[in-house]
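Hi F.,

I've been meaning to write this up properly since the lab meeting, where we talked about keeping a consistent format for the predictions we share between groups. The idea is simple: the sequence comes first, exactly as it goes in, then the structure tokens exactly as they come out, then a line or two of notes. No screenshots and no reformatting. I'm using this chain as the first example so we have something concrete to point to.
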Amino acid sequence: MILNRILALLIGYCFGLILFGYAYSKAKKEDITTKGSGNVGTTNTFRVYGWKAGVFTMIGDLSKPMLAILLTWLIFKERQSADALRLLMIYAGFGAILGHNFPFYKKFKGGKGIACTAGFVIVLFPLEVPIGLLALGGAFLLTGYVSLGSILGVISVFLQTIIFGEMGMVNVTETYKMEVYGIIFVMMAMAIIRHRANIKRLLNGTENKFNIGKKKS
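Output, unedited:
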């Protein structure tokens, strides 16, 4: 089972390496890592290239964990029990977030993983989507800060996973439950750490509010 965990994680990591924002900028003969915040994710793509590029990137980033989870399910569905299969799918989704955040070919400098995390949650923890959206969207609408909404969103996912887990609603047995909690905690912590510069600016009152930009020469 340890080797299966590693394989699922690697499957996800490979999907996560597809950086849609970076690919879009290269198609324009540009490099998004030199523009805006330098991030390859959805928010910076929205700001630098406008809504069409942002939507393209968002859909792509959402799809990465979904495809990794699907492939893992196809590989292991006949070989593992239902709860072990679900655990491997969680590893695959988490691996996609790792690949997006830490792509080896970009010297491990990638995105912040929020859209990937959303795709992960939509597939594996759909009951958590409404409150997660409320936390993210509510904070954004009230303040204009995507970063604050993203942070609150991932925190809500972790808290909901604990609550639903203790209610027996994460679809894994006691054998794997604490492991699932650990994965979701690392996912949350990683997202918060990736937003550390944003947190500093939020505390200083210098964080940029979201504004869809247009390509600049």
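Notes:
The chain has a mean pLDDT of 92.
The two ends are 52 Å apart (CA to CA).

If this format works for you, I'll send the rest the same way.

G.
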